[in-house]
């Protein structure tokens, strides 16, 4: 039988999980410090909860679950795997509106599923790490989202990321100005969102085909090409605003003013200097209503995360408009880039224990287990070699597992009430009183470079 997981799905071996947990710890710590509260929702949603929230392309990527039992023969679906964490949040906000605070800020770190074509950093099952703020239209919310994402990435060791900003209102105004019919705005935005992924030529051809005419396509593409060519210095955002106002013939466009305000607010946060206005950013999800955001790094086709304002989504469940804004970090893509760049600390991978306890002979097994229990009470991670092999074989195993310390209690040590502690990093060893061995190993670990 084939042993590979389903296409687009993965098994996670111990080092994979350690890397992921390291990143999740950083993300959770930052989100906590920004006042976001934890939330979890089921992996499975009613299918009507998800359908119609992501646009036509999104609907095609939903993993549907067929009806069961006597209804199985119908071939109909009534449930679906969670596509993202935002729509379930909107459902929760409507369901528990009386129990949530006026300004509800939550974070959620859970897997989602999409029937997408697998690629580098893109899987059919993957984790999202979301923050969302419900109840306020203030642009302070967007500035906080950018700052929180920036804090996460800088803490993880990224220093070359860019926060791309745009506004759905600005996109609509640009498309109208170029003469593109409103009925075509959605499909055109889907194509424009691929500009940084597939290149200008492919997007230009796709937009022209959608419109059946090259003229509007050429006008909007010419603007985006001009803006892309602007130098990435400190004056770039001001030059982009100038180009936009000239193209629109509108010096007071509200979307442009909102973007300028977010830049001013972000100047007081850790996102200062990271944000770049990018009118080609579209983000394909149809529920966005205002600001949209995305984080990119130079060597990744795609983003490390993104989000935006979606003031109408909760209203679909609640029957009244509730302002909301969210940002999602793509855990898998962060892991891919960090692994390729070798950004993980040495302590994160390759070591499952701080110390390994050897077994001198079969009769010594109970004493080895007792020593391991003592070390664990001292908050050390302890592995016990399960067999009474030759000592050299046990040491070789510990070295191969990158375990830094090994304890040996032979006949001489037992008589003297000591433990021989071997430091596999330096090759040295020391006889330590048994009552002091935990503290000795802990000090060695704390003083390690």
- The number of helical runs is 18
Distance between the termini: 47 Å
Taking all residues together, what is the mean pLDDT?
91
Instruction: Please identify the oligomeric state.
Output: single chain
Uncertain parts: none
The biggest beta sheet is recorded as: 8 strands, mixed
> What would you report as the Rg, rounded to the nearest angstrom?
28 Å
Bin the helical content.
Answer: 40-55%
Please provide the count of β strands.
16
Look at the helices and sheets and give the structural class.
alpha+beta
Beta-strand percentage?
15-25%
Shape: elongated
For the biggest β-sheet, the strand order reads 1-5-6-11-10-9-7-8
Task: Please name the defining characteristics of this protein.
single chain, 449 residues, alpha+beta, eight-stranded mixed β-sheet, five-stranded mixed β-sheet, 18 helices, 42% helix, 18% strand, elongated
Please outline what is shown here.
The longest helix has 20 residues, at 14-33. 42% of the residues lie in helices and 18% in strands. It contains 18 helices and 16 strands.
